[in-house]
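Hey, I was hoping to borrow your eyes for a little while. There's a protein on my desk that I can't quite get my head around. The fold is given in discrete form, as structure tokens running alongside the sequence. I'd be grateful if you could look everything over and explain what you see. Here's the protein in full, and shout if anything looks odd to you:
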Amino acid sequence: MIVLGLILLILGLLLPQSILTTIGLILIVVGLVLNFVPIGGSSRRVW
């Protein structure tokens, strides 16, 4: 998701469409949040 956000951000900067830049920034932020926040709890069970 972070890589897709970076690609859209670069395309948004190269092309005159600002919506790609906005979507790229949103994807980068969401990707970083999902990367650092554990989903389903932080406890890992090892059996």
Remarks:
- The chain has one domain: 1-36.
- The helical segments are 2-14, 18-36.
